[in-house]
Amino acid sequence: MTEKMNETNEEELLKEEEQQTQDTEKAPETEAQAEDKEETPKESTVEEQLEKAREEISELNDSLLRKMAEFDNYRKRTLKEKTELILNGGEKTITAILPVLDDMERAMKNMQTATDVAAVLEGVELIYKKFISILEHQGVKAIDTKDADFNVDLHEAIAQLPAPNSEMKGKIIDCTLTGYTMNEKVIRHAQVVVGV
């Protein structure tokens, strides 16, 4: 019986050793499987993040291209508007002056057959006043030179004459060509004679 017990004990010991061997063999497999399971979600997360980043880059590139196209269209439209403004900027002024031209044509026809010089002169003065009024509406004003001090910003001295009295020294004696400003900017200097 002792032999049977020894055999049973030996069998049990062998079984236990086999069990331990199987457990140790299974344990690394389980750990490896656990590592695989842990790596799989990480890999999929990295792949998902990479895909999201690619999609975001694609969206940003698309947005950038659209903005660049919009800006290019804006630039072209602005350039076209500036060109039209430069080419047609005087249209308003010319349209305002055309009635004066019509009046001048009628006056010239009437002058050929007119016998009353005073009536012709009055007609020309009316046309002149109308023209001055149109220019004033466009911001154009004559530079006043009567008894004014000489100012290099407004006047151009073409001659100097001895002043008739001491009060006229450095003042304008005569204006040979009227000067004009447009919206407070000198567009033509008045040509004047200055007393010294």
What does this structure look like?
The chain has 196 residues and is of the alpha+beta class. It folds into 2 domains: 1-89; 96-195, Head domain of nucleotide exchange factor GrpE (Nucleotide Exchange Factor Grpe, Chain A, domain 2, Roll), CATH 2.30.22. It contains 3 helices and 6 strands; from the N terminus they run αααββββββ. The strands form 2 sheets. The protein has a 3-stranded antiparallel β-sheet. Strands 2-6-3 form a 3-stranded mixed β-sheet, with no helix packed on it. The model has no long low-confidence stretch (mean pLDDT 83).
Q: From the helix content, strand content and strand pairing, which structural class follows?
A: alpha+beta
* Anisotropy-based shape: elongated
Poorly predicted spans: none
Mean pLDDT: 83
At the first level of CATH, the class of the largest domain is Mainly Beta
The CATH architecture of the largest domain can be given as Roll
Relative strand content? 5-15%
**How far apart lie the N and C ends?**
156 Å
Estimate the helix proportion, in percent. 55-70%
The major beta sheet can be summarized as: 3 strands, antiparallel
CATH topology of the largest domain: Nucleotide Exchange Factor Grpe, Chain A, domain 2
Helix count equals 3
Name the CATH superfamily assignment of the largest domain: Head domain of nucleotide exchange factor GrpE
- The spatial strand order of the largest sheet comes to 1-4-5
| Overall tally of domains | 2
Helices and strands, in N-to-C order? HHHEEEEEE
Q: How do the strands and helices of this protein lay out in sequence?
A:
Elements: H1 2-88, H2 91-113, H3 117-137, E1 140-142, E2 155-161, E3 172-177, E4 180-182, E5 185-188, E6 190-195
Parallel strand pairs: 2-6
Antiparallel strand pairs: 1-4, 3-6, 4-5
Helix pairs in contact: 2-3
